[in-house]
Amino acid sequence: MSSLSMKVAGLALAAGMVLTACAGFGGAPEPTAVPEAAVQADQRVVAEARVVPVRSAALALTTAGTAMEVLVKEGDTVEANQVLLKLDTRRHAAAVEQAEADLLRAKASLTKLQEGATEEEIAVAEAQVAKAKAQLQQTQGGVTGSDISAAEARLQEARARLAEVQKSGRSDDIAVSEARLAQQQANLAAERDRLSAAKSDAELRMEQSVADLTRAQSTFVVAKKEWDTVNESNKHPTLNYRLGEAERRKYYDTFVQAEASMQSAEVAVDAARLAYDAARQAEATGIQSAEAAVAESEAVLRREQANTDTDELAAARAQVADAQAALDRLRGDERSGTVAVSEAAVVEAEANLAKLRAGASASQIAEAEAQVQSAEAALESQRVLLEEMELRAPFSGIVAAVDARVGEYVTPGTAVVQIGDPTEWQIETTDLTELGIVRVREGARAAVTFDALPGVEMPGTVTRIRALGENRQGDITYRVIITPDTQDSQLRWNMTASVAIEGE
After folding, report:
1. How far apart are CA 216 and CA 265, in angstroms?
2. pLDDT mean across residues, the chain
3. Structure confidence at residue 20 (pLDDT)
4. Whole-angstrom Cα distance, residue 318 to residue 96?
5. Coil, strand, or helix at residue 255?
6. What are the residues facing 457 on neighbouring strands?
7. Which long-range contacts (CB under 8 A, 24 or more apart) does 260-267 make?
C-alpha cells in the first residue's frame, strides 16, 4: 500500500473514532441511513420469429384436372398475371369450339328470320301456286256442271219413257222381279261408289307416301354429303371451321336419322302399294259380285217377261241403262278424289306463299334472339372454364414452393404454388405464449436481431396481433407482426430472428 493510501486510511480511522466518542457522550446525532436504489426489472417480451414477405399467397385452382404444363420452379421470379401452371385443356377447348359453332348457327338463324324470304324464294312459291291452280282448272274442266245436269235429265227422261212402256198390264211376279232388279242395280251403284272411294283413298295414300319417300331421299342425300365431308375433313361442311366431337356426333346422328327415315318411308311406300293393290282387287271382286247379282235378277226378269217383252220395252230399258252409266262416269268418286287432291295442292301452295311473304313473326324473332343470347352465355361460360384451367400469379414475386408435377391430378382448392413479394418484409413471431402476449400491444416498439446477420439490429413496430391462439407443442402461442422501420436487402424468406418487444 502506498504512503498516500495509508494516510487516507488513517484519517478515516481517526474520524471514525471521534464520531464514536461524541455519540457516547450525546454530543452529536446519529447519521440517517441512505436507502439503496431499486433494481429495475427488464420489461421487454422476447420471442423467436421469422422473416416473411408482406404479400404472399398459396395459389390453388378452382377446377380439377391433370397438370399438362408446370411453367415455374422454386426460386423463379414471376410477374403479375404470369401463367404458372396449365391443366389439360383439350376437352374444354373442344367445348369452346362447340359453343362458338352453336353461336354462329343461332346468329345465322336469326339473320335469316330478320331478312325474310328472298325474291327467288317468293318467285318459286308463286310459280307453285300458279301450277296448282292450273292443275285444278284442268281437272275441273274435264266435266262441267252442265254436263252432269244434262246427264241427269237424260236419265230422268229414259226412266219416264220406260214407265210409259210398262203401263200395259203385267203380272205381279214381273213387278216384283223388276223391283228386285232395281234394288240390285242400286246395290251395284252403291258398291261401285264405295269401292271406288276406297281405291281412290288408297291411291292418295300411296301418292303421299311416295312424296314422303322423295323428301326423305333428298334429306338423306344432303345428310350423307354433309357427314362424308365432316368425316373426311373434320370441318363444318359450309362454314369451314374445325368441329368438336359433339358437333361431329350431331352430323353423324343426323345422317343416321335421315337414313332411318328414308328406310321407314320405303317401307311405308311398299305398304301403301300393297293397300292400293288390295283396294283395286277388292273393287274388282266386289263389283263383279254385285254385277253377278244384277245379272241374275235380270235373267229372272227376262224369263218372266219372255212372253210379254216387246222391242219397244227393251229399247226403253236400254236407254235407262245407258243414261245411268253415263251419269255414273261423270260424277264418279275417282273424279271427285282427283279434284280434291288438286284443290288441296292449291291451298298448300297458297299457304306457303303467304308464309314467305309475311316473314317471321315477332315471337319467332324473339325466340331466335333468345337463342343467340343463350348461345353467347354458353360460350362465355365455356371460355371462363377454359381460363380456370390456368393458374396465374396475382402479383409479382418469387416462387417459394411448387407442389405439382406434369401428369399429376390436381384437386380444386389444394395449394400447388406459393409465391411472395420480396420487395417488402415483415417479422412474424412463432412462439409468443399467452403469458407474454398479455404484455404486448399494437404500436409497441421492438428490436429485431437475426441469427444469420450477427451485429445487425433492426428497429420496428408491432402492427398486428392475431386474436386466435394456436396450440404449439402444448403451449398456446400467438402470432405478432412487426414491421421494421427500414428494409434490408440481406433478408430472406423464413430467415430466423429474435424480437424484443417493449412490454407493459
Report:
1. 7
2. 82
3. 37
4. 85
5. helix
6. 449
7. 261/216, 261/219, 261/220, 262/213, 262/216, 262/217, 262/219, 262/220, 264/216, 265/209, 265/212, 265/213, 265/215, 265/216, 265/217, 266/213
* Cβ within 8 Å of residue 270, ≥6 positions away: none
Question: Chain centroid to CA 157: how far?
Answer: 76
Angle at 402 between CA 396 and CA 403, to 5 degrees: 145
Residue that has been written with the C-alpha cell 411472395 in this structure: 420
DSSP structure class, residue 404: -
Return the C-alpha cell found at 304: 218372266
User: What pLDDT is stored for residue 22 in this prediction?
Assistant: 32
Say whether pLDDT at 23 is over 50. no
Please state the separation of Cα 257 from the chain's center in Å.
Answer: 21
Quick one: CA torsion of 262, 264, 268, 274, rounded to 10 degrees? 100
Q: Which of 55, 97, 36, 7 is nearest to 386 (CA)?
A: 97
Q: What is the value of pTM for the model shown?
A: 0.42
- Distance separating alpha carbons of residues 72 and 346, to the nearest angstrom: 74
Mark 350-363 as b/e (b = at least 16 C-beta within 10 Å): beebeebeeebeee
pLDDT of residue 341: 79
* Contact between residue 429 and residue 38 where contact means Cβ atoms under 8 Å apart: no
pLDDT tens-digit map of 379-431: 999 899 888 889 999 999 999 899 989 998 999 988 999 999 888 999 999 88
Gap between the Cα atoms of 90 and 37, Å rounded: 81
